[in-house]
Amino acid sequence: MEWSEVIDNPILRDLPFKIELNKFGKLLMSPASNHHASIQGRLAAILFNKLPEGEVLTECSIETSDGVKVAGVAWLSNDFINEFSYTTPYPKAPEICVEIVSPSNSKIEISTKVDLYLAKGAHEVWVVYDLNKINIYSNIGKIDNSKIVSSIN
Hints:
The protein is of the alpha+beta class and 153 residues long. The protein has 4 helices and 8 strands; from the N terminus they run H-E-E-H-E-E-H-E-H-E-E-E. Strands 3-4-5-6-7-8 form a 6-stranded mixed β-sheet.
């Protein structure tokens, strides 16, 4: 499948799953819990308040070398928005991509997504286990603190 087919398919619109595509165009679905949604909402609010010179998206689709991946939360600078508007999926990763880890995610899956987002131009990838445990990665590897957001909490 192509991403446009996923977006336009009425059967897939209201599923309670996060949908992604692998590089072969096959659907990947992950169930989302209300706890996951709560963390997603809080992170979106934090980024919106801390970085008003840009925009926050939830469920942000990004074309990667392994198909379309969907960051749970993403922050896009005004420059990014001016360049790409709301292209779906984005051909480049926004500056901050956030993955919220669910029980169904493996370490390899999360590590792969970090690498994919960084390879597509993300400045930081946040891996969130809980609001009290966030690992941040940049193109130099794991970093202690965000270079973009002064304080997450």
